[in-house]
Amino acid sequence: MKPQTAAINFLEELGQNELPVDPTEICKKMGILYNETDLGTLDGMLILDMSRNQNLICVNSRIAEQSRKNFTVAHELGHLCMHSLEQNTFYCSSDVIESFKSTINPIELSANKFASELLMPLFIYQPLVDRKDVDWDHIKELSGLSQTSLQATAIRFVDLTQTACCLIVSKGKKILWFHKSKEFQPFIQMEGRQLSKDTVAYSIFQGVDPPNHFEDVKADNWLSGRGVNRYTEILEWSLPINSYGQVLTLLYDEEGIAGWDEEDDANEEGETEWEPPTFHKSKKK
């Protein structure tokens, strides 16, 4: 069963049909012991004791944001609902919670998808996203409604929006990973790449206070390939460094740059080769 389906079925069983979804309250209803303690590099863990029919979810007390704790509990509930027949202990590091990198353990990725659907159900969230423009102000508003972190909310927004946008997470002036909407056409291949010095995100790591709105930046600071030239621009809105040392960036392809250069002409049959744009390492030193 898909994680999203499992989460929706779980919500139906609980009779939950409004925001916010409180995962700690769910633990109480289900008789799951909940505890917070210092877990070091772990964000959370789930321990199943089938012999006594007693389960424990523990969350790292060092996590500052309640929204992150909420997601961690929901993540562990995902393991309980989907993976309890495979193993009886789950130790989940901070590197995997809220991450949608394809390189993480598939079990952890499915637990994240379950948590996202549990806390931000499609049947509630889709109408909300459809009424919102793509920007951090609206993502923050939705974050408050669902009591989820900005990162988790942004990922959910990107998944559901009909606009061409992309979330980029960077740390130490390096791009860690990205998550793009279906409408965002540029092909992205940039894990571990250095930020361009001409991006707002880079300036934040230099200690510059960023503008609280989208800025036009040269698209070739982020992208390369057909359709991107020295005149092409894209909208960037980057947020200041968070408690994890990360900068969160929204790219908004308002004009649809992943098309043809003005100089390109199709042949008589209307066919021509297309090279998808890619994220690239900055050429500037």
List the helices and strands and how they pair.
Elements: H1 3-14, H2 23-30, E1 33-37, E2 42-49, E3 54-60, H3 66-83, E4 89-93, H4 106-119, H5 122-130, H6 136-146, H7 150-160, E5 165-171, E6 174-180, H8 200-205, E7 215-218, E8 223-224, E9 233-238, E10 246-252, E11 278-279
Parallel strand pairs: 1-3
Antiparallel strand pairs: 2-3, 2-4, 5-6, 5-10, 7-9, 8-11, 9-10
Walk me through this protein's architecture.
- With 285 residues, the chain is an alpha+beta fold.
- It has two domains: 3-122, Arc Repressor Mutant, subunit A (Orthogonal Bundle), CATH 1.10.10.2910; 164-262 and 272-285, Beta-Lactamase (2-Layer Sandwich), CATH 3.30.450.
- It has helices spanning 3-14, 23-30, 66-83, 106-119, 122-130, 136-146, 150-160, 200-205; strands spanning 33-37, 42-49, 54-60, 89-93, 165-171, 174-180, 215-218, 223-224, 233-238, 246-252, 278-279.
- The termini are far apart.
- Mean pLDDT is 88; it is low at 260-276 and 281-285.
